[in-house]
Structure formats: structure tokens, C-alpha cells
Amino acid sequence: MDLAYDDVGSGPVVLLVHAGIADRRMWRHQVPALSERHRVIAVDERCHGDSPWAAERTPHADLLGLMDHLGIDQAAAVGCSNGGRTIVDAALAAPSRFDRLALIAAGLSGFAMRPSWLELWQDRVYGSLGPERLAAYRGGADLTDAEAERIAVLQTRMLVAGPDRDETALAPDVWELAVDMALREIRTPESDEVLLEPPAVGRLHELTMPVLVLSGDADVPEILDMSRAYATGIPGARHVRIPATGHLPPLERPDEVNAALLAFLGDAES
């Protein structure tokens, strides 16, 4: 197994899968809190963080492969953004391997995003390149260092702070780490991502384990659409909304997220 991961604590297993704009460092507050009573495994998905790059990747298969490698028959899983999509796809592919899921600002395979999603990226992020450089980038040209740094800042402002806030809404250490993770992801060559088929969007009723949906009210509206789809499409799902919070609640609001996760995981032990 070539994926990078941290393995901390002992007890019932909890897997932590990061957002697409981040890496396993985003769980810096959750690992110590959860590992007091659980074995916590925070993984870097392929092409992120310290895990290797590949021209093609299948995130949910990688996660199941990591569980096989570590001899884990069943676990709870917590996923943020694309990491939420990963754990849902893995749970649909192998439902007996997961006893509960926590979906934080989670993506959803097969979900049709509104056109405003691409417009937002154009207006807030990639439009900053200008028409010529944007055309060159879409044609395969690399970003310059200055362009990559600017994109990382704009992307973090739009997503991690949220479209109606700016960096002043975030603690300086949260902003600094979020920009650093975004820049690392931007500088990584793109790869082809293979998602679950058929996708999760039409199969949420198949998820029969306990599910917690957690979202920040300041997140991008199109991402909040997916949280609502989970909350209404999964039988018995519980939806916790955190006010004045963007796309990475585990970093921005660790106390609230830790309390919600500990209560959710504690239900499994009672």
C-alpha cells in the first residue's frame, strides 16, 4: 500500500478522508480529539499530500484497499468535500465495511451541479488569469508560480471562507494552512478520476447505516445543495448546520465539529 496515512490511538476504527482542496493536515484538530477513544486513520488520497501521483485513480477503491492492507474489516468513516464522496462511494461498493458515515460538506458522485457553479469559479478564481492565459491553461499550459499562488488565494477565499465572506472571517492559522494545502493541490498535475458506477446520486436509499450530514451555512450554495440531497435522500440521516462557517468546518470550527463527531461516534458504543 503506497498511500500516506497517520494511524493514531486504539479502539473502534475511524477513517478520515480529506477535501479535494486539502490533505490530511486538515484533520489536525480531529485526530487528537478522536484518538482518545478510537483508532484514527487519516489518509492522503492519491495525488494529494504525501501520497503518490497517478495518471488514473479510483478513490473509493483506494480506501477499501487501505482497509484491506491494515486488516480493517469495518470502520466508521468521516469525509469532507470530495472525501465525503469517496466514503459514500466506498460504502455503496462494500456496505458491510462501514458501520456509520459522517459527511462534511460532502460531494456526491453523479450530482448535476447548477451552471452557477462553473460561473462562480470563472468569476472568482480562474477569470483572474485573463483570457489569453486562461485559454492557454485550458489547453494544457502550466501555471506560473505567481499564477498558482494567486489561484490558491482566490480559491481559498471563495471556498474555505465562502462566497459571501473573505479571509478576515478565518483565523490566521486556518487561512495560512488552507492556502498552503490549496497551493500544493494546484501544483499537482491533473489525473483522471474514476468514480462509482452507477453513481451514488440515485442510490442514497441503499445507505442503511447511521449517517451524519454536517454543513457550514457560509459554504457555496451549490455545495449546500449536495448536503441537502444527502440529508433528504438517506433514510434517517441527521443534518447539523453550523452558522457562519465555510467549506472546511473541521479547520474553522473544530470544537463544534469534534463535539458532533464524538456524539455521533459515541452512539455506536452505547
Automatic annotation (TrEMBL):
Keywords: Hydrolase. It comes from the Bacteria. GO terms for cellular component: membrane. GO terms for molecular function: hydrolase activity. Residues 12-254 form the AB hydrolase-1 domain. Signal peptide: none annotated. The keyword Metal-binding does not apply. SUPFAM superfamilies: alpha/beta-Hydrolases. Pfam families: Abhydrolase_1. PANTHER family: AB HYDROLASE SUPERFAMILY PROTEIN YCLE, MONOACYLGLYCEROL LIPASE. This is Pimeloyl-ACP methyl ester carboxylesterase. It comes from Labedaea rhizosphaerae.
